Amino acid sequence: MIYIVMGVTGSGKTTVGQKLAARLRLPFYDADDYHPRQSIDKMRQGIPLNDQDRAPWLAQLASLIPAWEAAGGAVLACSALKEEYRKTLQTVPDISWIYLDGSRDTILKRLQARQAHFMPPTLLESQLEALEKPAYGIHVDVSLAPEQIIQEVITKLEHMNPQSEFGVIGLGVMGKSLALNLANRGVRVAIYNRHVPGSEEGIAARVISENPSLSKLKGFDQLEEFVQSLEKPRKILLMIYAGALDAQLEALIPLLEPSDVVIDGGNSYYKDTARRTALLSGKGLHFVGTGISGGEEGARKGPSIMPGGPREGYEQVANYLELIAARDSKGKPCTAYIGPDGAGHFVKMVHNGIEYAEMQALAEVYALLRHLAGIAPADIAATLKEWQQIGLGSYLLEITIDILQKKEGDELLLDKVLDQAEQKGTGGWSAAAGLEYGVPYDTLSAAVMARALSAMKKERVKAAALYLQQPADITIDKSSFVPNLKSAYEATRIINHDIGFNLMREVSVQLNWNLNFSEIARIWTNGCIIRSELMEELATIYKQEQHLLLAPTIVERIRNARKGFASVVSIGLQQGIPLPVLSAALNYLHGYSTADSAANLIQAQRDYFGAHTYQRKDKPTGVYFHTDWKGSD
């Protein structure tokens, strides 16, 4: 939509136009900026412009309006005094005219108080004589305060245009929260949930009734009515599980028109997203595969958002994503265009892999502190609070502290929770991608496998009785063990992030995505599950460094932690405490920092049984050899 704020000089067009543009999240243009120099000079001298003076100016504005509309709309402040001027500017059908009306005395006082403007107060009379008040559009009294004018304009626009700006399909926890987030920020939102008798009935109506203060929400149970209620080009966010997505798209696509945008905000597999992007592109539609992290609270108050797919489609919805996203430390939205095809969902998949390993690492820290060091949960929480204050702050550490203090009656609630971790598949996808692209994925794969092993509860109970281990008779010196564990945890987190970013780097190169790792880290600094002080640091490091473990500040930190790290893992494993992620991180570090490894024996073995050949240290790179290993020299 194009909104033209009109009126005589001094009526407040620029002030109102700028505020309206900010409210509607549209660019603002001032027609005064397009006057030719000779017209400005003429007005400075107090000489009114005539129709001949205004003709080329109006023609230029008229030529720009279609481009502004194609880019998503705009607000223009323009006097547009005569009907013939307004007809010249009507180069697109969707223009909302907003006329700022006021008495001569009110406007003259404003002009006399105005400074540094080329239009002198003496020109008011000529403008009032030329003015032909429109019989259409929105008329607002300029004697109101600017904020009152804006509110009146918005209210009248809503009555004139009952269609919703944005649609949300799927009203589970995340979908409902995102819809409420949008509506709470002034967006007209249509919501739809399928109607299934006996199980899913009246979901949209229930969300509306539970939120009576959000007048901009409209609910639908019929898909066709929902689609028809949206402004064109339509912008629709799908928040449904990946297994139902293709069926939903099959029902939705026939109701859409070219240039409409469909956003998949669920946890979809990135290769499926690339396939769906191509499918919709062939129909003239935009498919924006978007990772969203933050859980229910983040979706409601501000998540981290990772959109990918066609840039043209992204640009149509960028304002909405930026509006609802969390903010980083500088107030910038925690969202940015990630890359083409399935890049957005791929980055979200890696996020979830890092999340898996972060959670498992904290579980191992807890196990060591409680079951090896014999520290009570309340005291573990106190220890973790100290860590939170000295550089290890993170959302996952924060919630772990809360969990360790939650009681049911006099008992720790955690002790009643079944030790059988579940997963939704994104961690497994992430581990599989590591294998596919040949990227070491130690900590993240270990975390996924740890969850799989935890699911074998019955077998584990039987095996525990068969393999009951008597701990070695050792004394844990907590004064050294706890600091060493802190160092091990810190090193594990750094290694874990390095592994995740390495996978993104390799895939970015192979698929030509050109991912910006500093920007990815920045949008993960708030809103998402893995937000942390470390992520703030990574956003800076990845501006200069390609590899985290080679960054000077990180090298020093890991080097200082290495001895204590190995000690903690060694003691824990000797005492029968499983440490899949801590030990995987340590092994990765050892392997990464070994200049001459035993992989030469593997190459010799491969050549022995399969004639796969090998390279030599003492020969040029790229030259391969084969040896008869049983034969004589």
Automatic annotation (TrEMBL):
It catalyses: 6-phospho-D-gluconate + NADP(+) = D-ribulose 5-phosphate + CO2 + NADPH; D-gluconate + ATP = 6-phospho-D-gluconate + ADP + H(+). One of its GO terms (biological process) is pentose-phosphate shunt. CDD domains: GntK. Pfam families: 6PGD (PF00393), NAD_binding_2 (PF03446), SKI (PF01202). PROSITE patterns: 6PGD (PS00461). The keyword NADP applies. Its EC number is 1.1.1.44. Signal peptide: none annotated. Pathway: Carbohydrate degradation; pentose phosphate pathway; D-ribulose 5-phosphate from D-glucose 6-phosphate (oxidative stage): step 3/3; Carbohydrate acid metabolism. The keyword Transferase applies. Keywords: ATP-binding, Gluconate utilization, Kinase, NADP, Nucleotide-binding, Oxidoreductase, Pentose shunt, Transferase. Residues 344-630 form the 6-phosphogluconate dehydrogenase C-terminal domain. One of its GO terms (molecular function) is phosphogluconate dehydrogenase (decarboxylating) activity. Homodimer. Catalyzes the oxidative decarboxylation of 6-phosphogluconate to ribulose 5-phosphate and CO(2), with concomitant reduction of NADP to NADPH. Belongs to the gluconokinase GntK/GntV family. Belongs to the 6-phosphogluconate dehydrogenase family. PANTHER family: 6-PHOSPHOGLUCONATE DEHYDROGENASE (PTHR11811). This is 6-phosphogluconate dehydrogenase, decarboxylating. The lineage of its organism: Bacteria, Pseudomonadati, Bacteroidota, Cytophagia, Cytophagales.
